[in-house]
Structure to design on (510 residues):
């Protein structure tokens, strides 16, 4: 409440229900801040049970009509939606930057990656096709079909205000479901604009709805009897809670959690050109979006004798990163890194740098020395000689802090990563096909990069980690997304025929 308002218009964010903005019955409100200035720029309602009920009622009413809309017609609406998102890409990026803080280029890139899921979902007439076999028995044919579930819900984190919701609802809606989205209360504006654009694309009212809020709204979603499936992306403790709650109420669930992603650098990357390439990759993956990415690299595993040269190179490049407001330019060029999302998160990340020093790691670069007049800024930090027992290694920091762990062999690197509770993404840097193949086969992580630092799968593959990075059986988007948002039915058919053989009382066999 004591944050500066700075002559900005403080907007009130409504809900989006039945194709139009709606007022919440809840009187609880949260503040939205611009991380680059610290100014309060808006207020968002924290929905209660009645608000969630209203959204689910609209989605439930829209379901029969939408389910019965031919997939090709659904796809045509998605095609128009795709065009609209592309046309409004810069506007969406500006909304993201104003509430999250990341640079405009980074925000625009994340809109593009979300748009690609819409492009995947446009193929729904083909993706949803079943199988058919004739003569599975005398005069009997068999076919399978996939049908939508009903009302589905999505609960999303602050770090990708467009991309993560777009991982979910285009696929769910293409499959014939209706949807209630609860975006992060820290960054609610982008989801509202995406809802408006979907209506403009021709989506019938009630098919896509947006509610806002915190645990109260989430619990209302978890306990709602008319919600059939829940997709969640956020931190591991909440992902586990969502998964366990859905298991109790019998809802289908995919709950993606936190991460601690490792990049292994093998000693054969020691030429000047390779070191340059690896360091650039690590800088982008470690400090891009101020480290607030679930696929950010936070631990570098230096194998053999590459450590000294690698740390020197990363330090050299990290020291000159341009840090400032995500929409600012210096000499015609954008910043490399914006602020962190809130003051509290900035202070938590800075606290980890304090802890790393206290625990005995070598602080090669101290991001705490970066000073800004306002906003939630922190510079890039680099730790060397980090040990697996230290909190900077064990915890997900979710900020611009890179930790280098030194090991002797590739086997040691693989064992270290496989022992970590998180298993979202990982990468190996090497010129050896044999070493890369061994890594790919033996590493127990959901998404793997070989000389690719952030191996986020393209939309027609599926995204998801292992162990504490994902609770549930299916990953998001791609064919796993289609399977998650539909259920299979198998139909065996026989038509009356003079030659039909009666089955009698025994188990029918061929
Ligand atoms: P968060 O877990 O705090 O919040 C995620 C969602 O859960 C939000 O919508 C929030 O309102 C809701 N929520 C928060 N506390 C809750 C509670 N007690 N009960 C019920 N719901 C609650 O996560 P965040 O800080 O918004 O996002 C950062 C986290 O998300 C990081 O851990 C990051 O790794 C993770 N993340 C994971 C992926 C992935 O694909 N695995 C992608 C993006 C982000």
């Amino acid at each position: 409440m004591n944050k500066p308002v700075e002559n900005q218009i403080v907007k009130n964010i409504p809900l989006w229900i039945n194709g139009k903005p709606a007022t919440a019955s809840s009187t609880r409100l949260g503040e939205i801040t611009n991380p680059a200035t610290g100014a309060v720029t808006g207020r968002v309602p924290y929905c209660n049970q009645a608000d969630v009920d209203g959204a689910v009622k609209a989605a439930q009413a829209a379901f029969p009509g939408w389910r019965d809309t031919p997939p090709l017609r659904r796809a045509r609406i998605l095609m128009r939606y795709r065009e609209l998102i592309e046309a409004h890409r810069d506007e969406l990026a500006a909304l993201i930057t104003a509430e999250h803080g990341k640079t405009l280029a980074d925000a625009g890139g994340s809109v593009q990656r979300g748009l690609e899921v819409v492009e995947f979902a446009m193929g729904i007439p083909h993706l949803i096709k079943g199988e058919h076999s004739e003569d599975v028995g005398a005069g009997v044919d068999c076919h399978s079909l996939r049908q939508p579930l009903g009302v589905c819900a999505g609960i999303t984190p602050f770090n990708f205000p467009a991309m993560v919701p777009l991982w979910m609802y285009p696929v769910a809606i293409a499959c014939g479901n209706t949807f209630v989205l609860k975006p992060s209360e820290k960054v609610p504006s982008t989801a509202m604009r995406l809802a408006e654009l979907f209506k403009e694309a021709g989506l019938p009212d009630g098919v896509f709805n947006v509610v806002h809020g915190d645990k109260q709204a989430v619990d209302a979603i978890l306990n709602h009897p008319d919600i059939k499936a829940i997709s969640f992306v956020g931190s591991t403790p909440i992902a586990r809670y969502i998964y366990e709650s859905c298991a109790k109420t019998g809802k289908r669930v995919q709950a993606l959690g936190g991460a601690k992603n490792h990049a292994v650098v093998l000693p054969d990357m020691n030429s000047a050109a390779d070191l340059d390439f690896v360091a650039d990759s690590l800088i982008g993956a470690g400090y891009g979006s101020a480290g607030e990415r679930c696929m950010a690299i936070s631990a570098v595993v230096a194998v053999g004798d590459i450590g000294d040269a690698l740390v020197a190179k990363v330090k050299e490049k990290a020291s000159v990163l341009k840090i400032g407001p995500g929409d600012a330019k210096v000499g015609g060029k954008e910043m490399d890194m914006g602020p962190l999302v809130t003051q509290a998160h900035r202070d938590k990340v800075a606290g980890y740098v304090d802890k790393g020093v206290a625990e005995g790691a070598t602080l090669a670069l101290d991001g705490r020395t970066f000073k800004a007049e306002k906003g939630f800024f922190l510079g890039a930090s680099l730790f060397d000689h980090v040990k697996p027992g230290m909190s900077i290694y064990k915890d997900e920091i979710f900020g611009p802090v890179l930790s280098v762990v030194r090991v002797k062999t590739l086997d040691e690197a693989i064992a270290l990563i496989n022992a970590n509770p998180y298993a979202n993404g990982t990468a190996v840097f090497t010129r050896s096909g044999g070493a890369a193949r061994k890594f790919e086969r033996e590493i127990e992580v959901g998404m793997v990069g070989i000389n690719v630092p952030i191996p986020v799968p393209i939309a027609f593959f599926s995204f998801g980690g292992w162990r504490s990075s994902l609770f549930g059986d299916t990953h998001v988007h791609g064919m796993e997304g289609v399977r998650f948002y539909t259920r299979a039915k198998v139909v065996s058919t026989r038509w009356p025929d003079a030659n039909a053989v009666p089955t009698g009382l025994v188990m029918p066999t061929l």
Observations:
- The two ends are 75 Å apart (CA to CA).
- The pocket of nicotinamide-adenine-dinucleotide is lined by residues 155-160, 164, 182, 184-185, 214-215, 218, 233-235, 238, 256-259, 294, 396, 398, 424, 465, 469 (CB under 6 Å).
- The chain has two domains: 5-257+469-490, 261-450.
